[in-house]
Amino acid sequence: MQPLLECKNVSFAYHGIDGETQALSELSFSLKDGEFAAVVGPSGCGKSTLLSLLCRLEEPEYGEIYLHGKPLCEHTEFHIGYMPQRDQLFEWRSILKNVMLGPEIRRCADGEHLEFVEHLMREYGLWEFRNKRPGELSGGMRQRAALIRTLALQPELLLLDEPFSALDYQTRLNVSEDIYRIIKREHKTALLVTHDISEAVCMADKVLVLSARPARLVMEVPIRIEMKERTPMKTRNTPEFKDYFNRIWKELNPDVGKKEQEI
Q1: Residues 53-69: tens digit of each pLDDT
Q2: Residue 72: predicted pLDDT
Q3: What are 81's strand-pairing partners?
Q4: What region, left, alpha or beta, does residue 177 occupy, with left being phi > 0 and alpha being psi -120 to 50 degrees?
Q5: Beta strand pairing status for 70-71 and 62-67?
Q6: How many CA atoms lie within 13 A of 1 on its CB side?
Q7: Residue 232's CB: how many other CB atoms inside 10 A?
Q8: Going by C-beta distance under 8 Å and a sequence separation of 6 or more, which residues neighbour residue 151?
């Protein structure tokens, strides 16, 4: 089966007065339709650069990115949705108007899009708050609204840029459950960038481990946990969770293992 998204030998560097900074080097991976992948790696390794390339805010210097087998640069329709670290909701707009911002900007805020948004807001507990302002909602509800705003244009691929990092730990756990449930129920393909290994293992079907800058794919870890109706919280309580966590942690922290052996 042809992958929905495929990166082939993608390289990118930033150029400035002080010279060149290589961010990505021959990075290759693919995502199947409906697959949820997480990207982890050292700080500054190029994870955000990867999202910028997928959003076409930047173009690869070498290599190619394909969507449904066609170069990403040749797509003219809206296929990719981006959810940033903070919800970026506008306080002067109601929740419904915030959620409908994408269709409004693209001048397609018609009955079909409104009906779809209403369905999502009813399904995920936000419809009764549609006329509230963002400041009247909890952090978790705001993130739910931000995701529904991202889904309003029905993108095929969701890019999640550390969407829980601004939340306290307890809220983060609850919101990750909500976001996971929505993405799986709506059968969306998703790529999550996170610094949290636990979060990656709990939510993803596979974890892509990147090296230090310039980022290369050093390990792809399929997460295989047999359970009925898997959720992030249930995954944390499985014996496999610890094994996956330790495997990825050791790959990201090889020097720690060497020091322990020396001791």
Answers
A1: 998 888 999 999 999 88
A2: 86
A3: 158
A4: alpha
A5: antiparallel
A6: 9
A7: 21
A8: 81, 120, 158, 182, 186, 188
What is the value of pTM for the model shown? 0.88
Question: From the CB of residue 51, how many other CB atoms can be counted at a distance below 10 Å?
Answer: 21
Identify the DSSP state of 104: H
Say if CB 11 and CB 25 are below 8 A apart.
yes
State residue 60 phi and psi, 5-degree precision.
-60, 145
Give the integer Cα–Cα distance in Å for 5 and 2.
Answer: 9
Q: Per-residue pLDDT tens for 158-217?
A: 999 988 877 788 888 888 888 898 889 888 999 999 999 999 999 999 999 999 889 999
Q: Are 172 and 164 in contact (CB under 8 A)?
A: yes
* Tens digits of residue pLDDT in 67-122: 988 888 887 666 788 888 888 899 999 999 999 988 888 777 777 788 888 988 99
Is the sign of the CA dihedral 183, 178, 200, 49 positive or negative?
Answer: positive
Between the alpha carbon of residue 101 and those of residues 43, 91, 151, 163, 180, the distances in Å are: 32, 13, 11, 19, 23
Q: H-helix or E-strand containing 209?
A: strand 206-210
Record the tokens describing residue 92, joined without a space: 């002067």
Length of the chain (residues): 263
State the DSSP string of 17-83. Answer: TTEEEEEEEEEEEEE-TT-EEEEE-STTSSHHHHHHHHTTSS--SEEEEEETTEEGGG--S--EEEE
Token output for 113: 């899009």
